[in-house]
Amino acid sequence: MKTLYLDCSMGAAGDMLAGALLELMPDPDAAIVELNAFGLPGVKYGRETLAKCGIAATHLSVLVVGREESSFAEASAVAKALADNTEDKARHEHDHLHEHRSLADVLHIIEHLNLEPPVRDDVKSVYESLAAAESRAHGKPVGEIHFHEVGALDAIADIAAFCHLLRKIAPEEFVASPVHVGSGTVNCAHGALPVPAPATAFLLEGVPTYSDGVIAGELCTPTGAALIKRFAASFGPQPLMTVQSVGYGAGRKDFQRANVVRAMLGEKGPSFAQSDGDIFELNFNVDDMTGEELAFALERIFAAGARDVSFAPVVMKKGRPGHRVSVMCAAKTRGEVVKAIFAHTSTLGVRETHCRRYTLARKIETVALPDGSTVRQKVASGYGVCRAKWEADDLAAFACAKGISLAEAKSMLASHLK
Fold first, then answer.
1. pLDDT above 70 (res 144)
2. 237-265 residue pLDDT tens
3. DSSP states of 299-341 as a string?
4. Contact present, 314 and 293 (Cβ < 8 Å)
5. Residues in contact with 355: Cβ distance below 8 Å, sequence separation at least 6, in sequence order
6. Hey, which residues does 267 pair with through a beta bridge?
7. How far apart are CA 128 and CA 65, in angstroms?
8. Which site in 29, 96, 254, 270 is 20 to 30 Å from 15, CA atoms measured?
9. 226: closest CA among 211, 209, 204?
10. Element containing residue 75 per DSSP (H, E)
11. What pTM does this model have?
């Protein structure tokens, strides 16, 4: 499975996310040409390499009328500089490009970009989520919301670039780390706001986030939050995968840690071992149940959602023979499994151990025989191991049909595979 993993330990911003994906492209320069073909008015994409704490990372630059503007403070400074300039035409063009835009204005711009329909839909979806978050933050209907920073052309450019590059990469699975939001305050069009800014906080609902209290400043921007929320299917540590390429996207600011987003593209599949994640092992002893009663109980425990059930003979107090039963189950089925244990066994108590189980990847293969019949084979692989075993019921049916023993049936089937 083609898997994309994003390390957001230094937050997420649109230009950083797009820069990280740009490094994953086979030909980044050709990708820049594709971005510039979007037709955003007055916008030119570029890429540059920045050193962040010794790491060479790509910064996706977006020039609006020849200037790069990535924050409200920078935009204000540029506006003032233009105001002092005698070139009225340049000032007018700049002011027009940075007017406050409604969602309808932004969607109109997106509709007229040279984007593939799925990418255009993705960009619109991101902006609709941004508008919903701004609506909640300001207590106004979506139709009355006017974007400031996130409505600027450079923000539209960042979001369109990320959506386009993600479609080009086409991962089957998108996993992100918990998002570091930073700390302190951030200056924006409405003044100084706490980090994360209100709209960003709303966008990050349901996303694992944290602040270590060390990095002062806004690490996760509204555009970064909207993109992560829209596309990441799950969050956590890097999954087990063979990494084929790594990309670093850089932000403009410098911190005591490298201000980068790291993207890792690789493969997960049946050749790799898997983890069941959190698994609970439930153990209990009984000394007053027959084998038949235990067999019935085990069937009921399986039906309640257990992954595995086994029992072994033990000697209990006063020399009484008994059985120790071990049950494996996932967290979501634990309650039902415990109910089944108490309902169908004579135990008075269950011991629980929280653990992690690693398994070989398993699949069922169907082997066609010369006579037109088929036999299923269970194949397990991972950790450098690959082994196969005939499905017991199919093997028995084959042996009965041929009038031979199981050992002979295994030998005959093995010869068919050669």
1. no
2. 898 888 999 999 999 999 999 999 999 99
3. HHHHHTT-SEEEEEEEE-GGG-EEEEEEEEEEGGGHHHHHHHH
4. no
5. 279, 280, 281
6. 2, 242
7. 26
8. 96
9. 204
10. helix 72-83
11. 0.61
3 state DSSP class of 51: strand
The radius of gyration of the chain's CA atoms, rounded to the nearest angstrom, is 30
- Please write the tens of the pLDDT for every residue from 379-389: 888 777 888 89
Between strands 2-7 and 173-176, the pairing is: parallel
Rounded to 5 degrees, φ, ψ at 118 are -65, -35
Q: Which range has the worst mean pLDDT, 28-37, 203-212, 266-275?
A: 266-275
Domains of the chain plus CATH, in order, are: 2-267 (no CATH), 274-359 (3.30.70.1380), 361-417 (no CATH)
Residue 71 clears pLDDT 80, i.e. is over it: no
Maximum alpha-carbon separation in the chain: 102
Residue 98 has pLDDT above 70, yes or no: no
With b meaning 16 or more CB within 10 Å and e meaning fewer, what string describes 318-353? eeeebbebebbbbeeebeebbebbeebbebeeeeee
Whole-number Å distance between alpha carbons of 288 and 55: 66
